[in-house]
Every structure is written in structure tokens, then in C-alpha cells.
């Protein structure tokens, strides 16, 4: 899989894509992630990528030209399955969407910024608009990072223990059960007895019961 991220602040993402799960996946050759600075594509001699909005509204709007040229340059090299725009008014990102996107070969993520991008880009070039929740971020970079992380960790071979992606919270509409490690007694805080019993079947039942209880209590909407 290949992910191309277009942004006016690629520095914000550099550290992220070169550490964490994304760095591991790239080293293993399971994914390629490329950052593109929108400013590198502008024809403006002052490297400006935004301008005032028509209609006298507040804020600045990213112009069509640098985005169109950047996407065209990428498309000249390969076909893209999805050209995603991160925006608070997009479809809400969730685990099923991460699963779906993890099966794609090539995707572009265009990070929204400031007041937005010229709407014609969204009408003519974007194939999918995604939000990561009902709150407003200054830019789409954090959304692009969150999405890339959620997508890449689902690619087979990225996680060392493949089971761990399958037992995630949300993968089966249930929150994960609590986990513990040594020591079994820390300052009198005890690990549940059942987990020390070695009784595999009983432990599985405990895990499911914990998942159900936590989901009912914390996220009843997931069970509807
Ligand atoms: Cl994708 N972008 C911005 N700017 N804010 C957001 C968002 C995206 N998702 C939630 N809030």
C-alpha cells in the first residue's frame, strides 16, 4: 500500500510517519508513505497557496491550482483508489472505514487547512471526505495522522502479533477487556484471580464477560 499525504504543514507529520507503527511498517516494506508540501506545487512567485474568499467572507482559502497540479503529478505516476479530503464536515471515520481503506493499493490524503480549500477541488477531484470526530481542529494533519495509523496497523504483517488487531476495541463492536502484567500484586492492587489460574476456557469467558460489561456501561450505543 502507498499513502500520499498533501499538506501545507508536512513538518507536522514528518516525525509521526517516521516513528511509531508507521515507521515499522515502512521498514518492513508493507507500506510507503510520502509527504508532499503543497507550496512546492504553486506557480505563485511568492509561494502562496491561499487567497481571500469570494463573497467577502472571513479567513483564507487554499487555491485550486497547487492542489490540482500536485494531484495531477501523482496521478501521472499511478492510479489512486481514493482521493481523501480531511474536513470536519466529512463522513465520520470509524473502524469499518479503516478496514476498508487498509485494502486499497494507493490513496491520497489531502489535508484541509485554514477556512478550507476552494470547493471546486472537492467537487471535481476528491472521492471521499472524512472527519475524525465532532470537534474542530486547526488543520487536517492530525486527522491524516490518526487515519494513517488506524489504516496501516490493519495491514497483515504490520503488527507482530496478528491477533492483537483482531481483538481491538471496536473490531467486533465490543470494547476490549482490561489487561494486566507483572507483578500480580502491586501495593495491594491485585490482578483478577482468574487470569492467574491458567484455565484457558474460563479466562476466555471472563474476557468476553468483561468486554460486554464495559461496552454496556461505557458505550451502550455500540450494542444497539
Ligand atoms: Cl478531518 N479536520 C479538521 N480541521 N477538524 C476536524 C477534522 C478534520 N475532524 C474532526 N475535526
TrEMBL record:
KW Lipoprotein (keyword) present: no
Compartment list: Cytoplasm
EC number(s) on file: 2.1.1.228
Domain tRNA methyltransferase TRMD/TRM10-type: 1-223
GO biological process assignments: tRNA N1-guanine methylation
Reaction it catalyzes: guanosine(37) in tRNA + S-adenosyl-L-methionine = N(1)-methylguanosine(37) in tRNA + S-adenosyl-L-homocysteine + H(+)
GO cellular component labels: cytosol
Main location: cytoplasm
Keywords, ordered alphabetically: Cytoplasm, Methyltransferase, S-adenosyl-L-methionine, Transferase, tRNA processing
Entry's family note: Belongs to the RNA methyltransferase TrmD family.
Official protein name in the record: tRNA (guanine-N(1)-)-methyltransferase
Name of the coding gene: trmD
